[in-house]
Amino acid sequence: MRRNLLVYAISVLVCGTGIGFVLVRGSRLAPAAGPSAEVRVTANSAAASPAASGIRGRLGEPLPRLLLQLIVIVGTARLCGALLRRLGQPAVIGEIAAGIALGPSLLGAFAPGVSAFLFAPSSVGILKLLAEIGVLLFLFVVGLELDLAALRGRAPAAVVVSHASIVVPYFLGVSLALPLFPTLAPAGTRFVPFALFLGIAMSITAFPVLARILEERRLTQTPLGTLAIACAAVDDATAWSLLAVVVAAAQASGIAGALGTILWTLLFVFAMLRLVGPALRRVLAGAARREEPGKSAVVAALLVLFASALATELIGIHALFGAFLAGVVMPREPAFRRHLAERLERFSAVFLLPLFFAFTGLRTRIDLLTDAKSWGTCVLVVVVATAGKLGAGMLAARLTGMRWPDSFALGALLNTRGLMELIALNVGYELGILSPRIFAMMVFMALATTFATGPLLSLADAWRRESGSGLAANERTIAGSTPRRT
Predict the structure, then answer these.
(1) Closest CA to 358 of 108, 184, 140, 55
(2) Domains of the chain: which residue ranges?
(3) Is 3.40.470.10 the CATH classification of the domain at 61-476?
(4) Model's pTM, two decimal places?
């Protein structure tokens, strides 16, 4: 216990001091002067040729065009997801890659006319709204799966490892902002929001993707799997809290405005946890005890979801935080949460999230990375992200008593970023903190670190076999771990 406390205190103190030093040093920097050299693109800006009549003319109408977009996006996402699953990778990597392929980096480069017609600027607004609804539903489900009571009962190692895997990559991300800010920050962006946002991007772990990887590899019920789930859940809760603070600081005008936004946020979180949550548990007590809660309970949950998302959007910290918090405060009965999650996740994961991937792909300009310096910077971002997340998680796990192979496997799992990273990156893009070039680099990093998880776990398995230490031998090293349904 004392060793865990010492590791935790040293990592937080050293990295916290380093982050403060970098922010003071970087606040003297200025982004590139004058208008930005890049054009912010949300879709291929080329206009489609005027349609005269017939089928092509009707396809240019809003509803037919939207239906065509849905067919192309969902179909492409499912095909790419199935292909990546056959290659031993999570399907979400293929779905993300499908979204990028439908953007200007591939479809827009090789078939600009098709891209211009399919994703005309006038039609992207509807696509964006549907994608954002999908993200709200997805984060609501993530909140449903975050069991705060179970987290409080986890071994102290979970808190030490998870926070070490946040503060170290956060410090490295903030430090990386020093050389990147002068050339990659959008004109008019301040250093502090840019640096803090890079720290967030380096610190995120994709809790849902990690859970699916564990399930596919049948590691969910092992000590390694339960500890990884606990660490990822703590990571998510901490990272989203930090992101809320960064968004509040970036959107507010001056220190007083930022403090006011943060104060409103704290009051809202208190109200949700202490007032709305208990009220929901009383109102939905009967439905929560049934195996099938019924339509009224689902409608009530959706109303709370949208009201909470609206409240955080009005406060100024983005609607996705409200959606996540709404999931957290739902009644705690496992059957009730499982029923809600299954109903909402099927629709959002199969239909709406591919729209989010496609919309992210329309923003991802891989074609802007045209020279060796840009790709060198991109590789540097991936290396720093991996060293911070995997390295810190592995060392912290080893210091808490895990064997080296399992420590390495845990670090590799925490290095998984996936969809959660894309959600955070889109928030930074919307706020004007990230330029198109650094946005493309960070999307590439999210794909690379998620793609590497499978091979790194296989490497950990080989290491474990060579050292003669199976998973059963490690059950003694993680005290207090209990299985959890993902």
Answers:
(1) 108
(2) 61-476
(3) no
(4) 0.78
227 pLDDT above the threshold of 80? yes
Spatial contact of 309 and 326, defined as CB atoms under 8 Å apart:
yes
Quote the CA–CA distance of 321 and 310 in Å, as a whole number: 10
Structure tokens belonging to residue 388: 């911070």
Query: Mind listing the pLDDT tens digit for each residue in 317-369?
Result: 778 888 988 998 998 888 888 888 888 887 887 888 888 888 888 888 888 88
Buried b (16+ CB within 10 A) or exposed e, 415-428: bbbbbbbbbbbbbb
Q: Are 443 and 422 a contacting pair, CB within 8 Å?
A: yes
From residue 421, alpha-carbon distances to 143, 211, 283, 417, 443 in Å are 16, 15, 35, 5, 8
Within 13 Å of residue 299, how many CA atoms lie on the same side as its CB?
Answer: 3
* Residue whose pair of structure tokens reads 């990887």 in the numeric block: 213
* 481: three-class secondary structure by DSSP: coil
Angle at 332 between CA 329 and CA 338, to 5 degrees: 105
Neighbours of 211 (CB within 10 A): 23
State the Cα–Cα distance between residues 244 and 250, nearest whole angstrom. 10
For residue range 276-308, what is the model confidence (pLDDT) as tens digits? 999 998 888 877 777 677 788 888 999 999 999
Using one digit for the tens of pLDDT, what is the confidence trace for 409-456?
A: 999 999 998 778 888 899 899 888 999 999 999 999 999 998 999 899
Structural contact between residues 309 and 323, judged by C-beta atoms closer than 8 angstroms? yes
Q: Name every residue whose Cβ is closer than 8 Å to that of residue 231 and which is 6 or more positions away in sequence.
A: 158, 161, 162, 165, 205, 393, 410, 414
470 against 359, higher pLDDT: 359
**C-alpha to C-alpha distance for 383 and 424, rounded to whole angstroms:** 20
Contact 262, 246 (CB under 8 A): no
